Amino acid sequence: MSPRKNRRAVSGKPPQGSGGGSGGGGWAQRTEDGPDGEWIVRSIAGAASTKAYRCPGCDQEIPPGVPHVVAWPADERGGADDRRHWHRPCWQARARRAPRVQRSRNAPRY
């Protein structure tokens, strides 16, 4: 029996999204235009997620191993300070969410 070949055939074109990113890897990223501006969005597979993050949409933790998306404004350089990790459904529903207002317990609601 011959050994298994785990390498893909070389096709001559580079993987999508491999140019100019910070941090190596050939992640597929896309640009999305929404009501809150233009964003660069990168999908992260569960196996590639090794840290816990906090989703700004639901304010819940994204544990390691959970697939999610990373988004940052397209008009900026996309530094680590600008990137936000979102649950996929939270990212898709961001236009339907109202901003979260932090109030004290006894503050009036108007």
TrEMBL record:
Bias kind Gly residues: ranges: 17-27
- Write out the ranges of the annotated region (Disordered): 1-37
Q: Where is the composition biased (Basic residues)?
A: 1-10
Which protein are we looking at? ATP/GTP-binding protein
- Which organism's genome codes for this protein? Actinomadura montaniterrae
